[in-house]
Design goal:
With about 60 residues, the chain is mainly α. It is about 70% helix and about 0% strand. It is built from 3 helices and no strands. Helix 1 (about 5-15) crosses helix 2 (about 30-40). The longest helix has 21 residues, at about 40-60.
Length: about 60
C-alpha cells in the first residue's frame, strides 16, 4: 500500500470518518487507515487520481 502523507490523512479523516457511525471505534491513525483500506476507499482514491492524470495528459497531447 502507498505511504499516506499527513495532509492526505487529515483530508481522509474529514471525508471518511466525519460521517462514519463507527468513527468512535477508530482510536488510532493506523486503525483509520486499516478501515479505509478494508472499505476500498484508498484504492478508489488512488485510481481516480491516476485516471484524472491520464485524461489530462491526453488532453494536453491533442
Amino acid at each position: 500500500m502507498k505511504v499516506i502523507e499527513t495532509d492526505q490523512t487529515t483530508r481522509n479523516l474529514l471525508m471518511y470518518c466525519y460521517t462514519c457511525e463507527d468513527a468512535a471505534f477508530c482510536t488510532t491513525e493506523e486503525a483509520c487507515k486499516a478501515c479505509w483500506a478494508e472499505q476500498g476507499l484508498l484504492d478508489n482514491e488512488e485510481n481516480q487520481g491516476t485516471e484524472e492524470t491520464q485524461q489530462f495528459l491526453r488532453m494536453m497531447h491533442v
